[in-house]
Design a protein that fits this description.
10% strand; six-stranded mixed sheet; 3 domains; 17 helices; elongated
């Protein structure tokens, strides 16, 4: 038995509606099961029950064993003082409030239809070799229900990303421009260098960056130098020497501290994703815009693509790394890469900013994400193998949220798909 099944039973009223009694033998009528609380505190708020002739309003706590009340030390927590009913699978011990009064208990183990228990076991065990528990049954859920669940999943994903943004906003003294700068820089680093670029963004004094708008070479110097890419004594390339010299000047002028910035990596990267290329592209992006934040928060998808029509400085036309010449090829930013920046940085920042200003419009953000190509990765491929349609970034983002926050954590009964399937099979 798992507690999440007991939550499901209570929330969806999968117990007999008549003839209920407390463990003490009193007649029990459930008038309102309450609202499910997924945070700390009692499991259901604002329930209403009638015990004997007394109407009670308050909270409901759910456990497998009644003794779990004491295992979790609820008797010491004032948040549980207003619990009016203890719903348990096994009532193995009486539970008392601080004032010494006993909390009535409802024991479920002899009340639940065996078909529900069998259906739950089949759902949780899934099918051997399946990608997710409900892999063989997921298409039994209607397209309408699945689409509604995806809407909620995507907004939930935006909320999760908002937590990082709001933390940065507090850290940076409500400087939205620095928040955007730092998160864009992180995503320019992609998976391998994302954290290193993130530490670079957080440790740069953004007022210094503002002074370098329109000065791409100096901004390159700052980014390369702070990332530890200008420390070699063996590279005699004229461009490298000039970068190193200029960074020495900036380091002295701004009293820069490199110790808090993580080192970048070239390991397992394709040359177009080398940190040298990405940092130069980033420098060109910021050096060419007087107010990138304003533009990215308000402009259309086509205008976003226009803003990112930049390329690394001319030196990188014939290089991927310092001092090593390569076949000439301008290092521009691909549409696919811009799409990832829109998905992971621009839309979440826009969502937070517009909501903060009280001018949030969910339709405009949904329209933007629904018109961007889906992401390509093994998780999305596996959903496609289950015949789940994935035609846009909206769908791929919602499926990533589903997989990472529900499927891998066996939260099937907090998932609309899991609850629908269990209702169908019980």
């Amino acid at each position: 038995m798992r507690e999440d099944l007991l939550h499901y039973i209570w929330n969806y009223k999968k117990y007999p509606s008549l003839g209920l009694k407390t463990s003490g033998g009193e007649n029990l009528m459930i008038l309102n099961a309450g609202s499910h609380n997924l945070l700390s505190g009692p499991d259901f708020f604002n329930a209403q029950v009638r015990i004997g002739n007394q109407l009670w309003a308050g909270n409901v706590e759910i456990h497998i064993n009644a003794s779990d009340w004491y295992v979790h030390h609820h008797e010491q927590d004032s948040s549980y003082d207003n619990v009016i009913l203890h719903v348990v699978w096994n009532d193995d011990v009486s539970v008392y409030r601080k004032d010494g009064s006993e909390i009535p208990a409802l024991e479920l183990k002899n009340l639940i239809d065996s078909r529900l228990l069998d259906g739950y076991q089949k759902l949780m065990k899934g099918n051997s070799g399946q990608f997710i528990n409900c892999g063989k049954d997921i298409n039994e859920v209607s397209g309408f229900d699945f689409k509604n669940w995806q809407d909620r999943l995507y907004l939930e994903r935006l909320e999760d990303k908002s937590k990082v943004i709001l933390n940065l906003l507090e850290k940076f003294g409500n400087d939205w421009e620095k928040v955007l700068f730092t998160l864009l820089l992180k995503n320019f680093g992609s998976k391998i260098n994302g954290e290193a670029f993130f530490s670079l963004g957080k440790n740069l004094n953004f007022s210094q960056v503002r002074h370098l708008v329109g000065k791409p070479f100096e901004l390159e110097c700052l980014l390369f130098g702070m990332s530890g890419l200008l420390e070699s004594e063996d590279i005699l390339d004229a461009y490298y020497i000039e970068l190193k010299k200029t960074f020495g000047y900036l380091k002295s002028k701004y009293e820069l501290d490199l110790t808090s910035v993580a080192k970048v990596s070239f390991f397992k990267l394709r040359p177009p994703n080398f940190p040298t290329i990405r940092l130069s592209q980033f420098a060109m992006l910021y050096a060419s815009s007087n107010n990138l934040f304003r533009d990215l928060v308000h402009c259309s998808k086509e205008e976003i693509y226009g803003l990112f029509k930049i390329r690394a400085s001319s030196y990188w036309d014939t290089h991927f790394n310092f001092g090593k010449e390569s076949k000439k090829s301008p290092k521009s930013i691909s549409k696919k890469f811009v799409d990832l920046l829109i998905i992971n940085t621009i839309i979440p920042v826009r969502y937070c900013y517009l909501r903060n200003k009280g001018i949030y419009n969910s339709d405009s953000l949904l329209s933007l994400i629904q018109n961007i190509d889906e992401e390509k990765n093994s998780i999305i491929d596996n959903f496609k193998h289950l015949d789940i349609p994935v035609n846009s970034a909206f769908e791929s983002q919602s499926l990533l949220q589903l997989y990472n926050n529900y499927c891998t954590r066996n939260k099937c009964l907090q998932c609309a798909v899991g609850t629908k399937l269990l209702n169908l099979k019980s």
